[in-house]
Design a protein that fits this description.
The complex is a heterodimer of chains A (516) and B (335).
Chain A: H1 3-19, H2 44-68, H3 80-100, H4 108-131, H5 140-154, H6 163-188, E1 225-226, H7 231-241, E2 249-251, H8 269-275, E3 282-287, E4 297-302, H9 303-311, H10 322-334, E5 337-342, H11 344-347, H12 349-352, E6 384-390, E7 395-399, E8 404-411, E9 414-419, E10 432-433, E11 436-437, H13 446-449, H14 469-476, E12 482-486, E13 491-494, E14 499-504, E15 508-515
Parallel strand pairs in A: 1-2
Antiparallel strand pairs in A: 2-13, 3-4, 3-5, 5-6, 6-15, 7-14, 8-13, 8-15, 9-12, 9-14, 10-11
Helix pairs in contact in A: 1-2, 1-4, 1-6, 2-3, 2-4, 3-4, 4-5, 5-6
Chain B: E1 2-7, E2 32-40, E3 48-49, E4 53-58, E5 61-66, H1 74-79, E6 81-82, E7 88-92, E8 102-107, H2 110-114, E9 121-125, E10 129-135, E11 138-143, E12 148-152, H3 157-160, E13 175-176, H4 178-183, E14 190-196, E15 199-204, E16 209-213, E17 250-251, E18 260-265, E19 269-274, E20 279-284, E21 301-307, E22 316-324, E23 327-334
Antiparallel strand pairs in B: 1-2, 1-23, 3-4, 4-5, 6-7, 7-8, 8-9, 10-11, 11-12, 12-13, 14-15, 15-16, 16-17, 18-19, 19-20, 20-21, 22-23
The chains are: A alpha+beta (516), B mainly beta (335).
RCC repeats (chain B): 146-206, 207-276, 277-334
GO molecular function (chain B): guanyl-nucleotide exchange factor activity
Pfam families (chain B): RCC1_2 (PF13540)
Chain lengths: 516, 335
């Protein structure tokens, strides 16, 4: 028996033992991690769930211990059907809470219990895989990775003794063990299917084509491009030189030394698949043209499926997943999928090593120039990273962020249009929609205004709020803006409060750094 | 009278041990997949069943099954409606003007309520409120004149069944469901309201059921800099059995348009009693809440009303139905 296999198993047994003795409801009933103990009757429903979770962890340990016996014929004294049902009950009860509470009011223990439920679900699959052949059979490994990633992405890997740290360690062990099993299999059998059965084309670099063309930039509106600036020079620009009202500018030499450009190429599907556990890791994908459109939704899918469905189906051999293809090709032809505003680097730390936080993110920067109330974002201790990865023509509608932003382009090209905070009155900020403050997003669709896109026709609300594009065009005439096309290696400074519209021209991978 | 129950039973919430209800749970209790007699007594009132417990008034005292609150909270919980976030709404009867109006008191949670903290809000109801029900994120109120109001979380307007833009009352304040008042005129007022998950229903005196809400709670908008944590996936989520829910109350036809005398909604299912004494069910069945029996154990649910094979005991008839989030109840009485 391999020692890695033993490590995975004992790691899981430790987790179940921990869950069987956790007290979730001694937590503060807030969305923050626990700080002090409170009366346990503050949330009786959560208490009942804790009890249920405890029982399932105990049953799982019992099942696990019988599975360890070499005598696989012995049936364990555990109703596995009921165990699966109860784990699924726990997950769906937690999800109800996730939706019933506004996300910022969700008590921490719900995220914690969901994380622990998913750890137990993956444990159950691990136990099953011991009883059968191994991890790489029967897609069990895919399911295990999916459970753990759901806990990370949906619940933020909440927990004390386990949580994110435990999950990362488990994924690492699983990945090493899976490689070991693969190598073992390759030695004993002729290599039937390389690369997890997913044959890449010879050259797995993403296409740099711009299939929908490129807007013509006007010379006087194009953001100036600079290089060779020191941090000191940048700070002076952001503060004294601009009197606290810096304009958007592009740096061409801030990120050239990132490994993501050369040794660890993000432009290579093969490299990205390798970094994502053979494409098994889940990523959140926004499906639909823009987050303000009807029918827009988010889904969590394996990275491999994201590449195949939304980035470039031609990268992969079409021989497999035939039954899936029918559905997904149709979907892909009409829908854009965008891995947007996701901290991929926290979820997959291996990718974090491919980039560096630019020094400029530590610069002292001025507050919001026109509206201090937009400054209500808490002070960030470290810059906040987000990944933005999608095909051509992903659109982020005109909006503002509560931070200064360095938008770094790694793969492909992106068009960005920017309006100063002073122009807000022309930009039709949205109001409160369904209880959500949408005032950081404009009603204006730059793509429609410029004639790049068709207007969405599926608004069957009666069209009361429909925007009269002709009159808007007249209104906007003469309102100044900046624009730029970012290519690999470019960094755009988007000062706080600046409205920006972002549109990918080709397959594009960017990283944004927010700071204040 | 006798009480029959089916469905989610992870905390023995369908098992009334006549002595101490909190006694140790033996092993892992399984769900009930068919209607099972759980209680008999001279008088049994309609149970109030929540996710982890059930309260029933039996021969004039309240009894509890499952993982529930302490005895001194039973009366309050039995009389209140509770959302998925634990908000409690209760009708308070006052002496003066008691005939014309009364008050609704909302508490953020049971602990805020039993610690004597001030309520979140107090609403005056005129005409007075006669019955309440809660869905995941809000409440529905039946008034004495047969009209219906709703209030709750502004994110999910469809559950409110009404517009919330001015001059209509905002989502946080009770406001009338106008379409319902057109449907159910003064000749056929609403006599009962029920709700569960993200669905709400009203039953008219003549026996028509109208439902509204959304299949699942999902926000229709997301702002760029908001967290995406929960807004991400429909995995591990139940949808309601009524597949065509919207913000407009819609007639639901049962077996060719039978008149309905009682109806109850769970989180993802519903149960109805028709005038001819038959029971119909619809929706989610993962925990056996439809009571289809052992044969229905693998049936995950149905999106049409299904006639149930249930016969009241000899000499009895069905007098009412009730639902917990994932359970159903049938109440029978001697003829």
């Amino acid at each position: 028996m391999s020692s890695l296999r033993d490590q995975v198993l004992s790691h899981y047994r430790h987790a179940a033992t921990t869950i069987a003795s956790t007290t979730y409801t001694s937590l503060t009933p807030t969305s923050n991690p626990p700080q002090s103990s409170l009366p346990p009757d503050s949330d009786p429903k959560a208490q009942a769930l804790q009890d249920l979770l405890y029982r399932q962890a105990t049953l799982l340990l019992k099942l696990d211990s019988t599975a360890q016996d070499d005598d696989n014929t012995k049936t364990p004294d555990v109703d596995q059907c009921l165990l699966r049902q109860r784990l699924s009950d726990l997950a769906s009860i937690c999800m109800t809470a996730f939706y019933a509470y506004r996300f910022d009011l969700l008590p921490y223990h719900w995220r914690w219990m969901y994380t622990d439920t998913l750890i137990l679900m993956s444990h159950y699959k691990v136990v099953q895989s011991i009883r059968r052949a191994g991890f790489n059979e029967n897609m069990l490994l895919d399911g295990i990775v999916e459970d753990l990633d759901r806990a990370l992405i949906v619940a933020g890997g909440a927990g004390e003794a386990l949580g994110r740290t435990w999950i990362e360690r488990t994924l690492d062990l699983l990945e090493r063990f899976s490689k070991e099993e693969e190598e073992e299999a390759a030695r004993t059998k002729p290599p039937l299917n390389l690369k997890q059965g997913l044959l890449l084309q010879q050259d797995s670099r993403f296409s740099t084509a711009e299939p929908y063309g490129r807007p013509t930039l006007s010379l006087e509106k194009t953001c100036p491009r600079y290089e060779n600036w020191t941090l000191d020079r940048f700070e002076r620009y952001m503060n004294e030189d601009s009197q606290g009202r810096p304009q958007p500018i592009v740096f061409t030499d801030l990120i050239g030394d990132w490994p993501a450009f050369e040794d660890r190429p993000w432009s290579s599907a093969e490299y990205l698949l390798e970094r994502t556990f053979g494409g098994r890791r889940l990523v959140p994908v926004e499906v639909g043209r823009s987050y303000v459109d009807e029918g827009w939704r988010q889904e969590l899918i394996p990275f491999k499926a994201f590449l195949k469905r939304y980035i470039d189906p031609t990268l992969f051999s079409s021989s497999e997943d035939e039954e899936e293809d029918d559905h997904t090709t149709k979907e892909a032809s009409t829908r854009v999928g965008y891995l947007a505003q996701h901290n991929l680097f926290q979820q997959i730390p291996a990718l974090r090593n491919d980039i560096q936080v630019p020094d400029f993110c530590w610069a002292d920067v001025p507050p919001h120039p026109t509206d201090p109330s937009k400054q209500n974002q808490p002070r960030l201790e470290v810059p906040q990273l987000n990944a933005w990865f999608g095909p051509a023509r992903t659109i982020t509608p005109l909006h503002t962020d509560g931070y200064h932003n360095l938008l770094c382009q790694v793969v492909g090209t992106k068009y960005v249009r920017l309006y100063a905070p002073e122009e807000t009155k022309w930009l039709r900020p949205r109001g409160t929609e369904h209880g959500v403050d949408m005032s950081n997003t404009s009603e204006l669709d730059i793509g429609v205004l410029e004639g790049w896109d068709e207007e969405e026709e599926d608004d069957d609300d009666g069209g009361g709020a429909a925007v009269e594009w002709e009159s808007v065009r007249r209104e906007l005439e003469g309102v100044p803006y900046w624009e730029t096309v970012l290519g690999p290696g470019d960094t755009l400074v988007i000062p706080i409060g600046w409205w920006h519209y972002v549109r990918s021209l080709s397959i594009s991978f960017s990283v944004s750094f927010w700071w204040n | 009278m006798e009480l029959f129950a089916t469905g989610f039973n992870a905390w023995n919430q369908l098992t009334f041990t006549q002595g101490n209800p909190q006694e140790a749970i033996p092993e892992e209790p399984d769900d009930l997949f068919g209607f099972t007699k759980v209680l008999s007594a001279t008088s049994i009132e309609r149970p109030v069943s929540r996710l982890t417990y059930t309260i029933v008034r039996k021969d004039d005292h309240l009894i509890l099954a499952g993982h529930g609150p302490s005895q001194h909270n039973l009366e309050h919980l039995y009389a209140s409606a509770e959302t998925a976030t634990g908000q409690l709404l209760t009708i308070v009867h006052e002496d003066e003007d008691g005939d014309i109006n009364n008050k609704l008191v909302k508490h953020a949670s049971l602990s805020s309520c039993s610690s004597g903290a001030n309520p979140d809000s107090i609403f005056t109801c005129r005409p007075k409120a006669t019955q309440l029900a809660a869905f995941d994120i809000g409440f529905v109120i039946l008034h004495s004149d047969g009209t219906v109001s709703t209030f709750g979380d502004p994110r999910f307007e469809a559950c409110l069944g009404r517009d919330t833009d001015p001059p209509n009352p905002p989502p946080e304040l009770p406001g009338p469901v106008p379409d319902l008042h057109e449907i159910a005129s003064s000749e056929d007022p609403i006599k009962h309201v029920t709700a569960g998950g993200s669905a709400v229903a009203a039953l008219t005196t003549s026996g028509s059921v109208y439902v509204w809400g959304s299949r699942t709670l999902s926000s229709s908008s997301s702002s760029s800099s908001s967290s995406k944590t929960a807004e991400i996936s429909h995995h591990h989520r139940l949808g309601h059995g009524f597949t065509e829910l919207s913000g407009i109350p819609n007639y639901t036809e049962i077996d060719g348009g039978k008149d309905v005398v009682d109806v109850a909604l769970g989180e993802g299912h519903a149960i109805a009693l028709t005038a001819d004494g038959l029971v119909y069910v619809i929706g989610e069945n993962a925990n056996g809440q439809l009571g289809l029996g052992e044969v229905g154990k693998g049936v995950s649910g149905t999106d049409g009303w299904l006639k149930l094979r249930f016969e009241a005991p000899e000499g009895s008839k069905i007098v009412g139905v009730a639902a917990g989030p994932r359970s159903s109840f049938i109440l029978t009485a001697k003829l």
